[in-house]
Amino acid sequence: MPPKVEKEHLNVVDIASSDDDGDAQTVARKQASSLGERQLRRNISSPEIPQSSGPITPPALPSGETLDSRSFWKAGNYVIGPTSKPALLEGALEHARVHPKFLHSNATSHKWAFGAIAELMDNAVDEIQHSATFIKVDKIDIKMDNSPGPALLFLDDGGGMDPVLLRKCMSLGYSSKKSNTTIGQYGNGFKTSTMRLGADVIVFSRSTRAGKATQSVGLLSYTFLRRTGQDDVIVPMIDFDISGHWAEPIIYSTHDDWSSNLKTILEWSPFSLKEDLLLQFDDIGPHGTKIIIYNLWLNDEGIYELAFDDDDEDIRLRDEALREATTKVLKKTVELQSHISYRLRYSLRAYASMLYLRKFNNFQIILRGKPVQQFNIADELQYPKVVTYKPQVAAGSKECSVETTIGFIKETPTNVSGFNVYHKNRLIRPFWKVKSDGSVIGNGVVGVLEADFIEPAHDKQDFERSSLFVRLENRLKQMVHEYWKGHCYLMGYQPPGFAAKQKKLLANQHNNSSNFPAGGKQDSRDEQPGLDVPDVVMPEGDLASTSVDQLCEENIQLFMRCEEKAQKEAELKQTIEELEKGLEDMRKKCAHLSSLLESKRKQKRNRLGLVTTIYT
């Protein structure tokens, strides 16, 4: 059993849900700071790790830790010891407390680790309105419990958080983001995302508000709360006033309380010295936020859930990557598995490239030292078509229209299909298949739309199942069928009902040929001069059901298909001619080389004969 530390007087964040932000300090616009850009100095190294060539070794667990306590889906299963009810101060009201287990259960809303990483990226993207220009996501090495291990680093140059905003960030349910353009809205993303990725997180933030420059440190440690037997969520935080020439502690109650918070942070964070702790602000600059998530979760095999050694420029989900690799061997569909619709399941670089619909003008996502190139799947569509959809919003709501770009994906296996649905520029559902499985209709059809009129779920990986969502789903199904009917022939597919029409036309031709008189003579009208009777006479009912315009349209489509086939055939012939020409050139070269070789051999034999004659 690890030794318990004495519960000390720390800053306790009241975990009370609140949507009232009337007294909240809104993030001020970025102001010039007297602090200059300091040279980057880290006490945390991030060396390049070569790709592993041997078996993966599970990390060593510290004393008192078990695999269950380090595996995310089992970390909430620990025994709760006896708790004591703290004495209330005179005149104070009793309030509901939140047990540390809630941090874990709250984080289980993220079934997918990349969804948690995306939440932290969203926070940086929301800071673009405060002149943020980048978000860096990287792997760094730290040392906890005398054993090294990886940690996740998130660093941005946004407006940062002052002491008030940092405390609200650590609270549940508070959000000051009420803009129509910001992605965050529930005030829960930071807690769920960080706790989903690792057991502990330390936050460094520097900000300037109303001419006062501050820097703050906050520690949200599930390990600390669990191992010290806490029955309430305690978040130690310290603040500094850096408006002057050096950092002055900001004291809210007593200096002992401030020192107690600092002591807890140093004991349970990767930084055991105050000097090391303050060095972490050096690469933030005059404003911004730095988040370090450590004690990353392990999978059921005791190996880190996130893989950093497969690609030095990427972060991958280990279990998903192994599953995809196995699928490649079994199904031998290398081309399909290499498409982004599959790679985004296990590659953070692939997922981040599609995470935001509109390309940034002055903002970059830098993953492990290399910027992520944004990718819009709509730019890769063949025969694109824009369809406008006007959802039936509730009475009194502002009417809106949604433009959906739909088309065939280029040079990709046909079973890649679906709609990429965004909400406020953020990808919520990638490659959402609305068509029925097993149907050829919609194969290779991909769409892109931004649906701001429906609300995303809390993990931002799906939408709430509202009536608006159901109507959108039905409209997208209809959209696929309409597009397929008018464009499938361009990809070599028969339009729906084409085979039935062909059979009907052949049957009509057979019936008309049987109406000729005996002896093979046609009607006497054929003998009348100047009267031209068509070879095939269609019944009146069939003429009524098949208009001239429809027949013309089908003929045009058939002609276009014939032209495309002829063009492909010409290209293939040209390719064959080029290959045959290259083959003939290679044969000539081989013959030339053979003659040269034979000549060399003859010269060698002649020289040997001459030498033999001389010696004789």
TrEMBL record:
It is found in: Nucleus. GO terms for biological process: chromatin organization; DNA repair; positive regulation of defense response; regulatory ncRNA-mediated gene silencing. Keywords: ATP-binding, Chromatin regulator, Coiled coil, DNA damage, DNA repair, Endonuclease, Hydrolase, Nuclease, Nucleotide-binding, Nucleus, RNA-binding, RNA-mediated gene silencing. Pfam families: HATPase_c_3, Morc6_S5. Its cofactor is Mn(2+). Residues 346-484 form the Morc S5 domain. Residues 562-603 form a coiled coil. Residues 14-65, 510-536 are annotated as: Disordered. One of its GO terms (cellular component) is nucleus. InterPro entries: HATPase_C_sf, MORC_ATPase, Morc_S5. GO terms for molecular function: ATP binding; ATP hydrolysis activity; endonuclease activity; RNA binding. It comes from the Eukaryota. Residues 31-55 have a biased composition (Polar residues). Belongs to the MORC ATPase protein family. This is Morc S5 domain-containing protein. It comes from Gossypium darwinii.
